[in-house]
Amino acid sequence: MSREDLRKEMEARFKGLPPEEYQKMLSLYEELYETAQRNGKTENEIMSALGLETKPIKPEVSGIRFTLSVLGLLFFNIVVVLGPALTIFAVYLSLWAVSFSLIISAVAAIGAILFLGESNALQLVFLAMALGGSGTLLGTALIPLGKLLYKVTIWYAALNIKIARGE
């Protein structure tokens, strides 16, 4: 890694610092780089000694900034996200209720044939098959939809946490 690469690396690592501190850190690293070169160290040894193989240093998020970002996210989520999210959740639960109702209706149609001795037994059998099949298909389709909604919810919560931390 050359001196120019060192400068680029430092810009990436310390971009969140105030300008005075950034200049102090940059001059300190350049001074260490020069001293190590004078002592016969290779560029790889210098970079390893400076710890440049590790992850970039992220500036700490101040308490006020964190609080303001959390409050802003809270306001945004309540005003913009909460309504559609609750609507989607309510529709999802309603579809499950429809699925169970269709299956229970099929069982009731078969019960009418067995216990009430309905004269239209053939029609009720076909009705039970149609209702039960529709309810089962709807319930089967709702399972992957529920998994997708769960993944989207977890992703959105993680995104909010990242934003609050300033990442």
What do you see in this structure?
There is one protein chain. α1 packs antiparallel against α2 and α4 (63-116) packs antiparallel against α5. The protein folds into 2 domains: 3-49, no CATH class; 63-165. The two termini are 27 Å apart. The radius of gyration is 32 Å and the shape is elongated. It has helices at 3-13, 19-38, 43-49, 63-116, 121-165. It is mainly α and 167 residues long.
Bin the strand percentage.
under 5%
Overall 3D form: elongated
The assembly state of the depicted protein chains is single chain
Total domain modules:
2
Radius of gyration: 32 Å
| Count of runs of 4 or more consecutive helical residues | 5
Strand count, sense and barrel status of the largest sheet are: none
Structural class computed from helices and strand pairing: mainly alpha
Q: How far apart lie the N and C ends?
A: 27 Å
Show unreliable segments: none
Tell me briefly what this model is.
The protein is mainly alpha-helical and 167 residues long.
Topology, element by element:
Elements: H1 3-13, H2 19-38, H3 43-49, H4 63-116, H5 121-165
Helix pairs in contact: 1-2, 4-5
Write a concise keyword list for the protein shown above:
167 residues; mainly alpha; 2 domains; 0% strand; elongated; membrane; DUF1700 domain-containing protein; transmembrane helix; transmembrane
